[in-house]
Amino acid sequence: MCRSFIGLVIVFLFVFKPKEPRIAVDAVQFPTFSVSNGTVNFTFFQFVTVKNPNRDAFTHYDSSLQLVYYGSQVGFAFIPAGKIDAGHTQHMSAKFAVESFPLKLPPLSGALSDGIGGLGVGVGPTMEIESRMELVGRVRVLKIFTHRVESRMRCSVAIEVSDGAVLGFHC
Question: Would the pTM of this model clear 0.90, i.e. be above it?
Answer without folding.
Answer: no
